[in-house]
From TrEMBL:
<comment type="function">
    <text>Component of the dihydroxyacetone kinase complex, which is responsible for the phosphoenolpyruvate (PEP)-dependent phosphorylation of dihydroxyacetone. DhaM serves as the phosphoryl donor. Is phosphorylated by phosphoenolpyruvate in an EI- and HPr-dependent reaction, and a phosphorelay system on histidine residues finally leads to phosphoryl transfer to DhaL and dihydroxyacetone.</text>
</comment>
<dbReference type="InterPro" id="IPR012844">
    <property type="entry name" value="DhaM_N"/>
</dbReference>
<dbReference type="InterPro" id="IPR002114">
    <property type="entry name" value="PTS_HPr_Ser_P_site"/>
</dbReference>
<feature type="domain" description="HPr">
    <location>
        <begin position="134"/>
        <end position="220"/>
    </location>
</feature>
<dbReference type="GO" id="GO:0047324">
    <property type="term" value="F:phosphoenolpyruvate-glycerone phosphotransferase activity"/>
</dbReference>
<feature type="domain" description="PTS EIIA type-4">
    <location>
        <begin position="3"/>
        <end position="130"/>
    </location>
</feature>
<dbReference type="Pfam" id="PF00381">
    <property type="entry name" value="PTS-HPr"/>
</dbReference>
<dbReference type="InterPro" id="IPR039643">
    <property type="entry name" value="DhaM"/>
</dbReference>
<keyword id="KW-0808">Transferase</keyword>
<dbReference type="InterPro" id="IPR004701">
    <property type="entry name" value="PTS_EIIA_man-typ"/>
</dbReference>
<dbReference type="InterPro" id="IPR036662">
    <property type="entry name" value="PTS_EIIA_man-typ_sf"/>
</dbReference>
<dbReference type="Pfam" id="PF03610">
    <property type="entry name" value="EIIA-man"/>
</dbReference>
<dbReference type="InterPro" id="IPR035895">
    <property type="entry name" value="HPr-like_sf"/>
</dbReference>
<comment type="subunit">
    <text>Homodimer. The dihydroxyacetone kinase complex is composed of a homodimer of DhaM, a homodimer of DhaK and the subunit DhaL.</text>
</comment>
<keyword id="KW-0418">Kinase</keyword>
<dbReference type="InterPro" id="IPR000032">
    <property type="entry name" value="HPr-like"/>
</dbReference>
<protein>
    <recommendedName>
        <fullName>phosphoenolpyruvate--glycerone phosphotransferase</fullName>
        <ecNumber>2.7.1.121</ecNumber>
    </recommendedName>
</protein>
């Protein structure tokens, strides 16, 4: 299965490489290519970005995220130089949050426009609004890290394709279960009990998937 690839354009090689490593924990089947630094120093390198763009392409398209303005300029030029620039796009999104959101969406098999949307929406990951009425279950986080990065990513992926609005509540806070960033914001640690509410045609299936994932210790 072809998945949308990611290129992380940063002035710092360490930043790009570290972020790629983090995002890969939640999206092991996605090509996430760091393109940071310039000749061993801070800066951006057009050739490095172009090479990363080619390596990230598997047929489903590539999105490029950047840290600062000049990195965006280099990313834009790299896309324009493609034979078919519609196969890649630069997204205006926070680098870290956008990369995580995009990686999870790409892992689920989402098309290019949906991955772009996921990255862009990282600026507004969720809210503390009240839970909607509907089906609900309470689950215990029996894994070692609670709703940390990788388990949160697995939860988002488990709900992919379902027609349901799913929210998770912990310690008076509420998060959209399709947003890794919102889930991380709950601070739900190992051993915590969270309430999951689902509404929509696939609500029952959504709750079942959450329960199954939690019962298995978020293995996957």
């Amino acid at each position: 299965m072809s998945r949308v690839g990611l290129v992380l354009v940063s002035h710092s090689a360490r930043l790009a490489e570290g972020l790629a490593e983090l995002a890969a924990q939640m999206a092991p089947d996605v090509a996430i290519i760091p393109a940071g630094g310039s000749e061993g120093d801070l800066g951006t390198d057009f050739d490095l970005v172009s090479d990363a763009l080619g390596r990230a392409q598997s047929g489903a398209g590539v999105i490029l995220l950047y840290d600062l303005g000049s990195a965006k300029l280099v990313a834009d030029i790299a896309v324009e130089m493609l034979g078919d620039p519609t196969t890649a796009a630069v997204v205006d999104a926070p680098l870290v949050e956008g990369a995580i959101a995009a990686a999870v969406a790409a892992q689920s098999g989402a098309p290019l426009d949906a991955v772009l949307s996921a990255a862009a929406s990282a600026l507004h990951p969720g809210s503390d609004g009240a839970l909607a009425a509907g089906n609900r279950v309470e689950v215990e986080l029996t894994n070692d890290v609670g709703l940390h990065a990788r388990p949160a990513g697995l939860l988002v992926r488990a709900l992919a394709g379902l027609d349901a609005e799913v929210r998770v509540e912990h310690a008076g806070r509420t998060a959209d279960a399709r947003s890794v960033l919102a889930l991380l914001g709950l601070g739900a640690h190992a051993g915590a009990r969270v309430t999951v509410t689902a509404d929509g045609p696939d609500a029952a299936e959504a709750l079942l998937r959450v329960q199954t994932l939690a019962a298995g210790g978020f293995a996957g």
